[in-house]
From TrEMBL:
GO molecular function, one term: transferase activity
Organism this protein belongs to: Acetobacter indonesiensis
Keywords: Transferase
Residues in Glycosyltransferase 2-like domain copies: 348-467
Record-linked PANTHER family: RHAMNOSYLTRANSFERASE WBBL
Organism lineage string: Bacteria, Pseudomonadati, Pseudomonadota, Alphaproteobacteria, Acetobacterales
InterPro entries: Glyco_trans_2-like, Nucleotide-diphossugar_trans
Signal peptide annotation: none
Name by which UniProt lists this protein: Glycosyl transferase
């Protein structure tokens, strides 16, 4: 059959009278249209308005919904219909049907330009597909792959002349076919289960796939369990922006066409880049067994069992590899040697060994590399028969104690305790490897927490999963490692806790306390439960046992004993432990998987608080996040609360200060967001006493979640920390634009606080905001401002120079960005007659990477520093601090921070009003937006030493009175209704 004959048979540009009569018979009967000529005229005159398609191959309704600009053209009379538009101009760049993608087909199957197509008698890729590609079983789009479809619908009859695509179009609608898989990229069963409303509207659609590709809310629906529109849009702002501007129908279209090949992450738990590194995945993709890593992932549910090993078998293999690596290291260590010679050791390390020479040498090498300070290593050779007997030949400075036989861990440790010379004693197994800074971090914990008697580690098994993150004693005397078999980076494993006990594989203890307790109780010889008993006795002495996640150890586990032997010893010694420590055991919770949350800490918190913020509130983010950070710190350090910090917007990966940016006893949920909150709360029923919601707008976001989780939140109260009343700020923005606001202040306030009813208590940042909240009908309102301590001994007038601004710029609507642009353009030029040209205007603070301040603020005096780890040196080096804000709400943290550092301030009068300070006494104020007045104030303060000293003296007095730490903590204490643990705030 010739090409021209093919084109005559399947022509997407022709009106198919017979098909049209059959497809729209009810409509034609209603209008009493009968003859062929009447039907043609009906289509031409009324068909476009009724969204009628002219033939099987073109879907009018889908076309105009997919390309809304066409609707405008039709309304303007440029084209009669979507079909008319497609025939005249859209055929090369637009798609005619929801099952065909022009760009996809040409890129994957037609590697030649439009001229070549035309020379062969084809108008576009669709023309080619209908007449050739379809009969060759080519895929028409990512969502229709004949191979997948026919495998899922083996009974479907394909007309040889038509091919699968046209045969399917002719068969639709068909309820059975609609539920078949058309391609690997869409799961119809999952879709209907996830979105039951689609099933209720089934009469409107040709199946789930049609609904997904043609519905009016393309970014609302997900196509399968492995892709999340919400996650992808948040993770890749470039794609979200492209979708917003119509380049893609939704994020999934981008992902299927581009993102999957770039190994972008399609959902929270689908890490394609990691998955792609699997050797089996690599080989199967290279062999074209699967078209992409994502399709491979879907086909295998994200799990690739290369050998079919069980979890136990895989750990066995990982242990074998660990032993092999010890043997690989051994020749190197024997050649280079190790040296533990000491004069006055900082730490004494006790290691009990019985054979396993290569493993012992590897552990010693890890210890030496881990800690640069002076170590006394006491090695007890418990009857070894291998090269351990001659270990002194290869390791200098060891204190070796040799036993006649295998005396076991306990007796060997107690013997070694008599030889300890350092203030700290480390019990260390010989079947482990210390991760960077483990020993240094463990010693540092004692300095941070003087009441600590022992510090334990995060133990990670050779298979990469946790052995324990601290350990639990249950009310029946049973014990377990907390989070065993979990990932080491889980939030629950990454905060400091007081625990029942930590494993003796790595246990650092104060030597004087050990000697008071005479080491391990010999009744537990040869081993097991001795460290559990020791930790309980340490706690009974009034000292703390601390789990520190910064101390990480890879542990072979049971490297020197057989599993059967170990289990037998455990059973015997557990009963001894119960008999000896019954009083302590009775204080512990009953064994229950749901009690882990309470049992994981040996010291009950005064309150369990869930602190919800827009983002994890790092101090460098400014914009109220610094204040949230202070609140969290006060709750943890001064009030003894357990605080879980939970972000509304899921962090895109870990940042440097995910854990260091908060008190180390705070639990930081760095792997979840608002979409996970309901599941998170329901997984912790009854756990939280208080939910502290930061920022008013989050009340509206959280209202449905809290309602859904009401059962899990029984007895939990909600505190809404408004941070600032935003309505006034919005009015200020309207005024700056010279426009009339759309709503009155009262209307804006009602809208702003319409969801505040979720909270039993409200917190305002100043009395002005508190008065507003009470006027709106909220009775229980507390005022919590900013925390600062006055720095009285800082450089004086002559030791400083330049002008400073500190503040974060998160987006282009930021008040800080507005004030900086205004200051650079309007105020800085006025300095020239009065200040030398070398006087700089320096800008410190976090800036969104998408905003280039250096380009925006192109003035010779401007020096953009960006985010700094410590802002104090900048406060101490500059002479004047400026806050030229033109719209704001609440109290600007930067004013209090600058004042606390003793740098005099020039601020807009709206900030003076918010902070309640007197212009000319506590700071210098200038009318908002008045460049001349602001410039005059800055120059006066910069040049007048007497004025400068007066302002500095008064602002420091203000800070000392108004931002006093103890009062700040007492306010939070009252809000939470808890007793204070520490009399003073610990910074």
């Amino acid at each position: 059959m010739s090409l021209s004959e093919n084109r005559k048979k399947f022509d997407w540009s022709a009106f198919d009278l017979e098909w049209y009569k059959k497809r729209y018979q009810p409509v034609l009967s209603f209008f009493n249209v009968k003859s062929d000529e009447e039907i043609r005229r009906f289509y031409e005159t009324r068909g476009p308005a009724l969204k009628h398609s002219p033939n099987l191959f073109f879907d009018e309704a889908w076309y105009i919904s997919r390309y809304p600009v066409v609707v405008d053209h039709v309304a303007a009379g440029d084209y009669v219909s979507g079909f008319d538009h497609y025939c005249k101009v859209g055929f090369w760049s637009c798609n005619p049907h929801w099952l065909f993608d022009e760009d996809y087909y040409r890129r994957n199957f037609l590697d030649f330009p439009i001229e070549t197509l035309a020379e062969n008698g084809f108008r576009n890729g669709y023309d080619h597909y209908l007449n050739q590609g379809g009969r060759l079983h080519c895929a028409s789009s990512p969502f229709f792959d004949p191979a997948v479809f026919l495998a899922d619908a083996p009974d479907f009859v394909v007309n040889v002349d038509d091919g699968p695509y046209i045969s399917l179009l002719k068969a639709l609608p068909n309820a059975d076919l609609q539920m078949r898989r058309f391609s690997p990229y869409f799961d119809p069963e999952w879709y209907l289960e996830t979105y039951p409303e689609v099933k209720r509207e089934a009469f409107l659609w040709n199946g789930p796939l049609h609904h997904y590709l043609a519905n009016a809310k393309p970014t609302y629906y997900n196509p399968n369990a492995y892709f999340s529109e919400q996650f992808y849009a948040k993770a890749y702002e470039d794609v979200a922006d492209a979708v917003k501007h119509g380049a893609f129908r939704n994020c999934y279209e981008h992902f299927v066409k581009n993102g999957q090949y770039e190994l972008r992450q399609p959902a929270e738990d689908v890490k394609l880049r990691v998955y792609a590194e699997n050797p089996k995945v690599k080989s199967e993709i290279a062999a074209h067994t699967f078209p992409s890593v994502f399709v491979h992932y879907i086909a295998h549910g994200g799990i690739v069992e290369e050998t079919g090993y069980t979890a136990h078998e895989r750990e066995y293999i990982s242990k074998s590899v660990y032993q092999d690596m010890c043997r690989v290291r051994l020749p190197l260590l024997l050649r280079s040697g190790l040296d533990f010679s000491y004069e006055k050791p900082e730490i004494s390390v006790i290691i009990i060994v019985h054979n396993n020479f290569a493993m012992t040498m590897s552990a010693l090498a890890s210890l030496r590399a881990n800690y640069a300070g002076s170590l006394q290593v006491i090695l007890v050779d418990s009857g070894s028969s291998d090269e351990t007997r001659h270990i002194e030949r290869f390791v200098k400075g060891l204190d070796v104690i040799r036993a006649l036989g295998n005396v076991g861990f306990l007796m060997g440790c107690n013997e070694a305790l008599g030889h300890v010379k350092a203030d700290f004693t480390l019990y260390l197994n010989n079947d482990l490897e210390l991760m960077p800074n483990a020993l240094e971090n463990a010693v540092a914990r004692f300095a941070k927490e003087p009441n600590a008697g022992a510090v334990g580690a995060k133990l990670v098994r050779t298979n990469g999963l946790l052995q324990e993150a601290g350990s639990i004693i249950w009310g029946d005397g049973g014990v377990c490692g907390y989070l065993r078999d979990h990932m080491p980076d889980s939030p629950e494993a990454n905060y400091v806790r007081s625990v029942d006990f930590c494993s003796g594989a790595f246990l650092l203890v104060r030597t004087d306390l050990l000697r008071q307790l005479s080491g391990f109780d010999p009744d537990y010889a040869p081993a097991y439960f001795e460290e559990t008993d020791l930790c309980v006795r340490i706690r009974q002495k009034g000292a703390d046992v601390v789990y520190d996640p910064a101390v990480v150890v890879v542990h072979y586990e049971y490297g020197t004993s057989g599993t059967l032997e170990s289990n037998q010893m455990m059973v015997v010694n557990q009963q001894k432990f119960i008999e000896k420590n019954r009083a302590y055991i009775e204080t512990r919770p009953a064994r229950n998987p749901h009690q882990d949350l309470w049992a994981r800490s040996a010291v009950p918190a005064t309150k369990n608080v869930l602190f919800i913020e827009d983002f994890l509130p790092f101090r460098h983010l400014g914009s109220g996040f610094t204040r949230s950070n202070d609140v969290i710190t006060a709750m943890v350090k001064s009030l003894g609360c357990h605080v879980t910090v939970y972000p509304v917007f899921r962090p895109m990966g870990m940042v440097d200060d995910t854990y260091t940016g908060f008190p180390d006893r705070a639990e930081i949920v760095a792997n979840k967001g608002l979409e996970d909150l309901a599941g998170f709360l329901n997984s912790r029923p009854g756990y939280y006493d208080v939910i502290w919601v930061a920022r008013t707008h989050n009340a509206e976001r959280l209202a449905p979640v809290l309602a859904e989780c009401a059962g899990a939140l029984s007895g939990c109260s909600v505190v809404l920390d408004t941070e600032a009343v935003a309505s006034g700020r919005e009015l200020q923005k309207w005024a700056l634009k010279g426009e009339q606001p759309q709503h009155s202040l009262e209307e804006m306030l009602q809208k702003e606080f319409r969801s505040a009813g979720i909270a039993q208590k409200l917190v305002a940042v100043n009395q002005k905001d508190a008065t507003t909240l009470r006027r709106l009908g909220h009775q229980d309102v507390s005022v919590l401002g900013h925390l600062q301590s006055a720095h009285r001994f800082t450089p004086g007038f002559t030791e400083r120079q330049d002008i400073l601004f500190v503040g974060a710029v998160h987006d282009r609507d930021s008040p800080n960005l507005d004030s900086l642009i205004w200051f650079a353009n309007e105020v800085l030029p006025l300095f020239d007659p009065h200040l030398p040209p070398d006087v700089k205007f320096r800008i410190c603070g976090y800036t969104n990477p998408d905003i280039d301040l250096k380009k925006i603020l192109a003035h010779p005096r401007v020096d953009v520093v960006g985010r700094v780890e410590d802002v104090t040196p900048y406060y101490n080096a500059h002479r004047v601090f400026v806050a030229p804000t033109r719209f704001a709400g609440g109290i600007p943290y930067k004013l209090h921070e600058a004042a606390a550092h003793g740098i005099p301030i020039v601020a807009s009068d709206i900030l003076c009003e918010q902070v309640g300070w007197q212009s000319g006494e506590d700071l210098l104020g200038a009318a908002t937006g008045n460049a001349a007045a602001f410039a005059h104030a800055v120059v006066s303060l910069y040049q007048d030493r007497t004025l400068w000293q007066k302002i500095r003296r008064n602002e420091l007095r203000r800070v000392a009175v108004e931002n006093e730490p103890a009062a700040y903590v007492r306010t939070i204490q009252t809000i939470l209704d808890v007793p204070a643990r520490n009399p003073e705030y610990l910074c």
